[in-house]
Write a structure and sequence with these properties.
Elements lengths: L9 E5 L4 H13 L7 H18 L7 E5 L10 H6 L22 H4 L3 H12 L13 H21 L9 E2 L2 H12 L29 H19 L7 E6 L26 E11 L2 E10 L14 E8 L2 E10 L27 E8 L2 E9 L16 E14 L4 H6 L10 H17 L5 H17 L2 H13 L2 H4 E2 L12 E3 L2 H12 L6 H8 L8 H11 L4 H11 L20 H20 L6 H4 L2 E4 L1 H7 L10 E4 L13 H6 L8 H11 L18 E2 L2 E2 L2 H8 L3 H15 L13 E2 L2 E2 L3 E3 L5 E3 H10 L2 H17 L8 H13 L4 H10 L1 H4 E3 L4
């Protein structure tokens, strides 16, 4: 055997009875080579050894030479690129804006052209390059090249870790709201009072897009002022109204707003129907007026008429409460439907007198009052009886006759001491402010931190009293840059461009905002302060603890909600003339299924492959009926084992995903195929060219199926290159309509769900698509890791991060692709634990 420096290529031969001996001899020789600038040649030899071991070990095959290329010199271009790639990817043609003219073997030793090499690796591994209509290398040559390239990239990254540029990051509005909640034990969501954040790389926590403007700072100041008053209990005694509009379907053919004989919320009493519930923060121990605006079943439900308002007064203790209004479930509901006409002169009105219905007022799930209301109300606009009486909106007004602020979790969290005399106030205030600042700033605080806060306290104290001084200090903390921004300060004298390990305190903040979208709790912060967080086993134990905490629901809401496009479901508007069964209940169940599914995989540490082909999901009766699955009753969502014949299982069988990847009146093969490439394989197609024509829906007066429309569309060469990858994936899901119901026909014709991948692999339907994705499970695991790492780092990943992603993916594969193994791998990875210094 000769190395690449000696000239001719390495030649391995298959022969009876000699494979293991040759492998041993070659392995000893290669492992004996020293590290030097031609290391990639050595790696190639090792890679070829691994890639062909199984072939050489078959002694029953006839003698046949197997040639594996070795690269001549570090300055040479790998022959596989010269022979198959450079014809298109050169300085002159620059197809896909990529030229390989400058790449050399030695790049992997010197860290040059890494972004180009990563592109080459991804496309070659996926079999996309060379294109299938061009000459192809042998499978062994491709495998050896991929192994050489991957090993070289990973080896350089291990010796020269580069965590990328660290940008000072502002908390986005959800993180700010969560931090306020956890800092002050205040159960109030203030996120909607801040402007919506921009998104980058698919997420709204990306540092580069979280800009700061004077207008935004004004909003932060206003929110901090409100929060400070609520938390300390020093808010205004003035009465005002808080309104909550219950999610409802629109009026059906001028027949009123639908209501259902089922429990509308888990926060309402058992045996209830209709109505709604929401969280209300009572500012004082006082009396509050709870009002319900009821449906009149008229031809216009947008008006709020005084006759449709029902009010009661109830006492509430200060603090957060769940306020609910609901009717009682009917055991034998009247299912008759009134005939409607759009003619005011001929509309029949109910002949029977209205009956009185009990409506319950509940506080924290307990009935506190019942009021009787008429089953319908006659109106100048006339009245119908198609739907039961229901609640459209809940108002809470108050406080009336406030008695003062009682004990609340927020006051307990803030006022950890109470001065008994004026001379003790300053020391107590410093203790309170210091404790809050430590949690808010996520680190120990010193005199430089406390002095400006105490100055704010003293100014307000001089004008009012001790508690108002504390309130002013709380507001100052909530608008401090140390709270609003995640800042990682390099040591004085650090060299620009150097790489250092994060301190325990910096790592604690990264970890808590990754898993909780919030600040560290006392346990995590104490471990960081005492320097124990990065000790062996401690970090993994904290990850396990934090994922079991309810705050880890933030990963479902914020990561999965954006990764899977679940946030788009509320904006989806299916055409009710085509999909009359789509309603608010179904939309809510769709979202809950996917959220509970992701949470279950996360909490129980299931395999990532469950996202592709799980044999279970979460359903209630409304969603089960939509899926055609029997035996499930009631509104409660529960885990259900799926029959293999159910045409469900995994994310791609869930109506939420199928709905957000469709249009309002029809499915989209392209949107679904692109969603799979983007989110499950991290193989996004390039943007479409400008002026792409719309799909042709008819031809010679006949409605075209989705397949026929796209066949016409793909006749354009500019469109065919991308559609050849997207369309097969989308076609396999055509049995699901635009709201995820199973169907057999489209445009009156049987649906053809057969498909063919670019490499010639044929499959059909969801079951075939699952097999295709499972055959690429490493690519899927890598794609998931890439998305989760983007979210964890709050920046886009690039070529320097890919070796870490491969390392994490390999570790997960060895552990059955368990999701918590991926999370732990990210937390231990170089991009997460290291920082490139900017210098002082």
């Amino acid at each position: 055997m000769q190395t690449a420096d000696d000239g001719p290529p390495i030649v391995m031969t298959r022969g009876k009875g000699t494979a293991h001996g040759r492998l041993r001899d070659m392995g000893s020789y290669v492992m004996g080579l020293n590290w030097h600038p031609t290391l990639p040649s050595c790696i190639l030899a090792l890679s070829a050894l691994v890639a062909t071991a199984s072939v050489l070990a078959r002694p029953d095959e006839a003698e046949q030479p197997l040639v594996v290329e070795a690269f001549a010199t570090p300055e040479a271009t790998p022959a596989i690129l010269g022979d198959y790639c450079s014809r298109c990817h050169n300085d002159n043609d620059k197809v896909a804006n990529l030229s390989l003219d400058d790449v050399r073997n030695g790049d992997l030793f010197h860290g040059r052209n890494m972004e180009i090499w990563e592109k080459v690796l991804r496309r070659t591994r996926q079999g996309e390059m060379p294109p299938l209509n061009k000459p192809q290398p042998t499978a062994a040559a491709r495998a050896a090249f991929v192994q050489w390239l991957e090993s070289g990239l990973d080896a350089y990254a291990a010796k020269h870790p580069d965590p990328g540029r660290a940008t000072i990051r502002r908390l986005n509005r959800v993180e700010y709201a969560n931090a306020v909640r956890d800092l002050l034990a205040l159960d109030v969501d203030v996120s909607r009072e801040l402007p919506q954040d921009n998104s980058g790389y698919g997420f709204d926590n990306i540092a580069d897009v979280l800009s700061v403007s004077p207008t935004l700072m004004d909003r932060y100041i206003a929110v901090a002022s409100k929060v400070g008053r609520l938390a300390t209990g020093l808010t205004s005694r003035r009465e005002f109204v808080t309104s909550y509009e219950v999610p409802k379907d629109g009026s059906v053919m001028n027949g009123g707003r639908p209501a259902y004989n089922e429990r509308a919320s888990d926060d309402l009493p058992l045996g209830s129907r209709g109505g709604g519930a929401f969280t209300y923060y009572a500012r004082y121990d006082a009396t509050y007026e709870i009002s319900g605006w009821l449906n009149a079943n008229t031809n216009n439900e947008t008006d709020r008429q005084p006759e449709d308002k029902v009010s009661v007064r109830v006492p509430l203790k200060s603090g957060a409460h769940v306020i609910g209004l609901s009717f009682r479930r009917q055991l034998a509901p009247d299912e008759s439907v009134q005939t409607l006409r759009n003619d005011l002169d001929k509309v029949p009105v109910p002949t029977a007198a209205p009956v009185m219905l009990p409506m319950d007022v509940s506080v924290d799930g307990v009935r506190v009052k019942t009021v009787n209301v008429r089953s319908y109300r006659m109106s100048p606009r006339y009245s119908q009886q198609n739907f039961p009486r229901d609640v459209l909106q809940i108002d809470v007004a108050g406080p009336f006759s406030p008695k003062g602020v009682g004990r609340t979790p927020s006051r307990d969290r803030i006022f950890i001491c109470k001065p008994r005399r004026a001379s003790a106030e300053a020391a107590c205030a410093r203790q309170i402010v210091g404790a809050l600042a430590r949690r808010a700033y996520r680190r120990p605080v010193n005199d430089n931190d406390l002095t400006p806060l105490m100055r704010v306290y003293a100014t307000e104290r001089a004008q009012s009293d001790f508690e108002h001084g504390i309130e002013a200090a709380v507001e100052a903390i909530l608008v401090s840059p140390h709270f609003l921004f995640l800042v990682e300060q390099d040591p004085v004298g650090s060299k620009p461009g150097g790489v250092r390990r994060l301190t325990d305190l910096e790592l604690a903040s990264r970890l808590s905002f990754f898993l909780w979208s919030s600040i560290p709790d006392d346990t995590l912060l104490s471990l960081a302060e005492t320097g124990q967080l990065q000790k062996p086993g401690v970090m993994d134990a904290q990850i396990t603890r934090m994922l079991a905490d309810p705050r880890a629901q933030a990963l479902t809401t914020n990561f999965a909600g954006q990764w899977l496009y679940l946030r788009n479901l509320d904006q989806q508007r299916p055409d009710i003339s085509i999909f009359p069964k789509f309603d608010t209940r179904l939309r809510r169940a769709m979202a809950q299924e996917t959220e509970m599914f992701f949470t279950y995989v996360l909490r129980t540490n299931r395999s990532l492959l469950d996202f592709i082909a799980a044999d279970y999901t979460f359903l209630n009766q409304r969603l089960a009926d939509h899926y055609g699955i029997g035996g499930i009753t009631g509104t409660a969502m529960r885990r259900v084992t799926l029959d293999p014949a159910s045409n469900r299982g995994g994310l791609l069988g869930q109506a939420s995903i199928l709905t957000v990847t469709s249009y309002g009146n029809h499915t989209s093969v392209v949107k679904r195929g692109k969603w799979i490439l983007d989110n499950l394989l991290a193989a996004s197609p390039p943007p479409p060219p400008p002026d792409v024509p719309a799909l042709q829906e008819k031809h010679d007066g006949r409605l075209l199926t989705a397949r026929e429309q796209l066949e016409l569309h793909r006749k354009s060469p500019a469109c065919a290159a991308c559609h050849v990858k997207m369309d097969p994936l989308g076609f396999s899901l055509e049995n699901f309509d635009a709201i995820g119901a199973f169907r057999q026909k489209d445009a009156g014709q049987p649906i053809d769900v057969s498909a063919r991948m670019p490499d010639g692999t044929q499959f059909a339907g969801l079951s075939g698509l699952k097999r295709i994705l499972l055959s690429q499970k490493d690519e899927f695991a890598s794609a998931f890791t890439e998305r989760l790492l983007t979210y964890a780092l709050a920046r886009g990943v690039d070529a320097r991060d890919m070796p870490a992603i491969r390392t994490i993916t390999r570790s997960a594969a060895a552990d059955g692709y368990r999701i918590q193994t991926v999370i732990k791998g990210i937390v231990h990875s170089a991009p997460f634990t290291l920082r490139r210094t900017t210098g002082q």
